[in-house]
Design a protein that fits this description.
Blueprint: H1 5-25, H2 29-39, H3 45-64, H4 73-96, H5 99-122, H6 133-150, H7 154-162, H8 168-192, H9 198-220, H10 227-253
Helix pairs in contact: 1-2, 1-3, 1-8, 1-9, 2-3, 3-8, 3-9, 4-6, 4-8, 5-10, 6-7, 7-8, 7-10
């Protein structure tokens, strides 16, 4: 069943904003679409999560076309090896913890994310040397656990890559690839569980052209900011992610 225009048009605007930002920074699609669309009551959280994954795959395919040479596959493989098994661990850990304990962990995570974001937002100078493979593996594990528990694997990986002595195109390519791997894994798992409804598939199919156009716009017309400014923007977004983690958990505890 095709949704009404009163839902399609605002949702399309949200997708455009999220996909464009994701293309120029390498992250933010899930946070932007989830926050705006859920706040406007356009879809349920579960449906939004699935739509985001499918849109992320389209965005990644278009954004990475011609940019794969930016990737050092030794680094990419190490992070992926950390992310995939730890994502399952995160889901199991959430099932093991009580609701109160999970909220406390979420609040502590939010505080750490805010601290890291604020620290580097004011001093967005990258490291002098590339981190060791063990460091990338560790952040991959952390990102996977957080993604499995709270559905937002972004903060640890954003923090790790944006502080590396890499160019912005390199950073974007790594993050887009990694989030595509996570989105693909989640989509396959949801499909295996039989939770891909016809409504979600129709909504996703309708927004695939929108996502592709927004991605091409992001590639062709990036914002005219310096690398330092873009790094600062990335870490400010990390602070917002941290706040987004703390507020719901605090409300649940109260």
């Amino acid at each position: 069943m095709i949704p009404e225009l009163s839902i399609l048009i605002p949702f399309a605007c949200v997708v455009i904003v999220g996909v464009y930002f994701n293309t120029v920074t390498g992250f933010g699609l899930a946070m932007i679409i989830m926050a705006l669309a859920n706040g406007m009551g356009l879809a349920s959280v579960a449906d939004l999560a699935t739509i985001i994954c499918l849109v992320q795959l389209v965005n990644s395919a278009v954004a990475l076309k011609g940019n794969m040479y930016h990737l050092d596959w030794r680094i990419a493989r190490v992070v992926i090896l950390g992310v995939l098994p730890s994502s399952i661990l995160g889901v199991l850990l959430l099932d093991y913890l009580s609701a109160a304990a999970a909220d406390v962990v979420q609040m502590l995570l939010g505080v750490v994310v805010i601290y890291g974001g604020m620290n580097f937002a004011w001093r967005p100078t990258p490291l002098k040397q590339l981190s060791r493979p063990a460091s990338f593996f560790s952040f991959g594990i952390l990102g996977g656990v957080i993604g499995g528990m709270f559905g937002i694997p972004g903060p640890p990986l954003i923090f790790q890559f944006y502080r590396q002595p890499m160019s912005l195109p390199q950073i974007r390519s790594y993050l887009i690839l990694l989030f595509a791997v996570m989105s693909g894994t989640r989509t396959l798992f949801v499909g295996w569980q039989g939770q891909l409804s016809s409504g979600v598939l129709i909504m996703s199919a309708l927004f695939i052209p929108v996502a592709a156009i927004a991605t091409m716009a992001g590639r062709r017309y990036p914002p005219p900011f310096s690398q330092e400014t873009m790094r600062r923007i990335a870490f400010v977004m990390l602070v917002l992610m941290g706040i987004g983690l703390i507020i719901p958990a605090a409300l649940n505890i109260v």
